[in-house]
What we know:
Blueprint: E1 4-10, E2 25-26, E3 29-30, H1 31-40, E4 46-51, H2 55-61, E5 67-70, H3 78-91, E6 96-101, H4 109-121, E7 127-130, E8 135-142, H5 146-149, H6 159-163, E9 170-173, H7 184-192
Parallel strand pairs: 1-4, 1-6, 4-5, 7-9
Antiparallel strand pairs: 2-3, 6-8, 7-8
Amino acid sequence: MDKIAILILAAGSASRMGKVKQLLSYKHTTLLGYAIEQALKTPADAIYCVLGAGAEDIKNEIRQPVKTIYNPNWEQGMGSSIAVGIQEIEKAGFDYALIMLADQPRIDAVFLTQLMGMATVHKNTLIASDYGSKNGVPALFPKSFFDQLKTLDGDQGARQLLNSGNPKPLTLIAEDRVQDIDTPDDYSRLLKN
């Protein structure tokens, strides 16, 4: 069986939110706690969480069994967090990395499990979330992409890789699940639903 690791990106400083976004209350936990809960409900073999800004405070709030990775270059953006995380996942011998964000609380275990299920049918294939006009994360990367992911930097993350068309990823329609919580307005809208 292929081994899948989930990599949750939670290293940003949440400058638009004005406070530590990862620890905002959501349901009975935090935004990050909820993302971890969803990841733990999938058939993944391990969960990794990349931390950066406020790493110690955030790490102290994590109650679930996850491996944390500190990105010393978190200020360089999401790409650097992916690179650091993929290095760890590759060292541990995983066949796939499913990259997801800590601030997309509409992404649930069902959706993540569907992405993984596609990989059992379409081996060694890049699988992304279809946002409508573009592809994004959560996305499942086979290890043949790890070398490319380890060279990422900047704030674009894996966007170019998912949208270059070379190779064209398989996609799963994300519909209304893709909703980043970046500002206080985003957060208050989330709590109303």
